[in-house]
Design a protein that fits this description.
Elements (H helix, E strand, L loop, with lengths): L2 H6 L3 H26 L2 H17 L1 H6 L2 H24 L12 H26 L3 H11 L5 H8 L3 H21 L3
Helix pairs in contact: 2-3, 2-5, 3-5, 7-9, 8-9
């Protein structure tokens, strides 16, 4: 869970400090996220996103004392959880005009359910990938990092990154072909 956040950091000192902070505060941040989301997986995702944001805002985070870091991380975790809750509960509303039939409304609702189901299945599939493949895919897809940047952050060769990315994409493609998603 922490690997992607650590990969964003530039120094070993920052990595060690964030890893220590994670070990001491992950449960506190999980409880905050869970109190807003009421879902174990979503709360875990919120904690991971919290640490990614802390790593992205490393200048501010590492300039704080230990007590202030806990408060800052707690606020970030709460905000991430609230954002996730809003995103998950957002319903697309469609203005109905006189020309829209009940059948069209049913089709829109069906498409909405299918989209949510597919998104959940895809998220579940990515979570089930081996951590090394999952982290590379995450850095590439979410952070938009290049192969070279990922290799440098993870201290591995570009070929290793390409291989892990290939395996992750292959697993997703096979799931799509089998109709699992």
């Amino acid at each position: 869970m922490l690997t992607a956040a650590l990969a964003v950091l530039e120094t070993d000192e920052q990595r060690n400090e964030l890893a220590d902070f994670y070990n001491k505060n992950k449960n506190r941040l999980y409880k905050i996220a869970f109190s807003k989301l009421n879902n174990r997986e979503s709360a875990e995702d919120a904690v991971q996103e919290t640490f990614l944001r802390l790593a992205d805002n490393r200048g501010r985070f590492f300039s704080l004392n230990k007590r202030e870091q806990v408060i800052y991380a707690s606020v970030v975790a709460r905000n991430v959880a609230i954002d996730m809750f809003k995103e998950n509960s957002k319903l697309d509303t469609v203005e109905l005009s006189e020309g829209v039939s009940d059948e069209a409304c049913e089709n829109l609702a069906e498409e909405e359910l299918l989209y949510k189901f597919t998104k959940e299945k895809l998220t579940e599939l990515v979570r089930g990938l081996p951590p090394l493949q999952r982290d590379v895919l995450y850095l590439k897809a979410v952070h938009g990092m290049t192969i070279q940047e990922i290799a440098a952050k993870l201290s591995v060769s570009e070929n290793v990154v390409r291989q892990r990315l290939f395996c992750a994409r292959k697993a997703v493609r096979e799931a799509l072909q089998k109709g699992e998603i």
